[in-house]
Amino acid sequence: MNTSAFIALALTRPGLVGAVAPSSRRLAQAMASQIGDAGALIELGAGTGAVTSALRHAAPGTPLLAVELQSDLASGLRRRFPDIEVACAPAHEVLARHAHAPVDTMLVSSLPFRSLPEPMRRTTLAALLQFIEAHPTRRMVQYTYQPRAPFELPARSSLRWSLRDVVWGNLPPAGVWVLGGDGA
Ligand SMILES: C[S@@+](CC[C@H](N)C(=O)[O-])C[C@H]1O[C@@H](n2cnc3c(N)ncnc32)[C@H](O)[C@@H]1O
Fold first, then answer.
1. What tens digit of pLDDT does each residue of 110-146 get?
2. 3-class SS at 139?
3. Reduced to 3 states, what is the DSSP secondary structure of residue 45?
4. Which residue minimizes the CA distance to atom 3 of ligand 1?
5. Exposed site from 50, 79, 155, 176, fewest CB < 10 Å?
């Protein structure tokens, strides 16, 4: 696992990482348990691949695209998961390129929305809301260390957050939330 690259990034660009360690196995499994019968998966901010690994185990036959901004982490993902597609690019660009992905695509996000630099946060939120709102069957699972939803929705949004799990065994404990239409 590419933990040293992750820690180096956490020290130099803490806002992009929003964590001091990769996701725990329990948190990764809790995220993966929310994918249901999604027809395709796009993982945003795949980092060291902790959640990627849980997704491969939960749904080995489901197409998975892992998105990671940092090139050394993306290279590590390619080495560790040679059978999946890895995009080294900002999440908003990948989502725009995949607007025509299957209607039941699920986003699985570890993006640190509370600490991302503001221009990137705004652009990323706009892209993912547009991606999910394009089809009523699209959803996103996201964790947060705060006792509230990962980010506030615009007043005009038809989407809603639903708290699905709290992983007390993670340090710090993490809430697992699903965003989608009709109460997700
Ligand atoms: C919390 S960390 C990753 C956690 C991951 N589950 C793990 O266990 O390694 C968030 C990751 O999002 C990546 N990231 C931040 N902003 C991004 C963006 N706009 N597009 C794609 N990846 C981004 C960071 O480089 C970092 O690897």
1. 999 999 999 999 999 999 999 999 999 999 999 999 9
2. strand
3. coil
4. 47
5. 155
